[in-house]
């Protein structure tokens, strides 16, 4: 499975927003898993390029006034871009990111369910 650059950028923002906004922190384990999940979407992409993508995404995230609103726009856009199997993979990725720090909080569960409801 290989994603184009725009999809990868969208996923990076979505995953970062999910990892940080839902519980107010992004643990190192979550960030490593986030990078690994992005690499699964673009296995031919160099690790350094994934790192650069994440640095750019962090800058975009910090600059966004409505981080969750931007993430919601991304989920809407992904529905028109990805097929159902790929959308299910995004949900699985979100669940993995939520579990990476050893605890899944209610906000993470709600975000995943809201995303699922918007797609299926």
TrEMBL record:
Q: Name one Pfam family in it.
A: TerB
Q: Which CDD domains match?
A: terB_like
Using the record's annotation, list all stretches that form the Co-chaperone DjlA N-terminal domain. 22-115
Instruction: State the name under which the record lists this protein.
Output: Tellurite resistance protein TerB
